[in-house]
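Our preliminary data section would be incomplete without showing what the modeling component actually yields. Below, a chain of 248 amino acids is followed by its predicted structure, encoded as tokens that our downstream tools consume directly.
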Amino acid sequence: MLQLRDIRQAAFDQFLAGKAAGAHDESALLDEEKALHSFQKPMMQFAEETTYLLPALTAIRWVSIEQDYERVPEFMVSQAEKWKAAAPGHPWVAQLAVVGDRKSLPVLVGDEIPDYPMPMLSGDTIPLRQLLGKRLTVLDLWASWCAPCRKQNRNYLVPLWDKYHAAGFQVVGYALDADRGTWASAIEKDGADRWPHASDLRGDDAPLFKELRLTTIPANFVLDAAGKVVAKNLHGEELAAFVEHYFQ
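Predicted structure:
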């Protein structure tokens, strides 16, 4: 427990140093999320390596005091499975198993994406897997009002699509919008009309988000040709590097 305390303090100091200063523009918001992940990572590593239940559970709780594990579901599932095997019948492990139930967490890396009927900007409805690229697809979950999403469109998805689409790369957009005109205008302004777009135009009540068990944007799933999730929530240079490496 003392070792974990020191790890948390060092991680928190690094988190404060890494938080973006100034206004909450699109860059600052993404930098703050990156800093939060850097804070969580050493405690997740500690939980994965320790053989002691109480410190592991404490580390898991410190990963998110609010118990919001949407961005780290693979970690939660692995911890639930680890401790169910190591300490079956323990009441705390039973509580962990509820939080780490894969059916209540977002779709995991290694899972197949649901073949959701996508209501397209064109007016058609097309099953998601029919929209996939021949080799790699980014299912981009965004909204016209989401500044980091719009930056991702312009600065990363457009250049990646231009460079790799002929080699089998695709982007499929699904928007948390409610107004068709605003949604369509954002697509055109960002130059994102290169790839297919869908939305149920129900705002935060988007059915696909319920299917994927998501609440937060920007978010994405990187899919292979069969619709298997090979990576998730890669943004900016991290996404560009992943796609570059995949096609090399």
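Residues 2-104 form one domain. The mean pLDDT is 94. Preliminary results of this kind motivate Aim 1 of the renewal.
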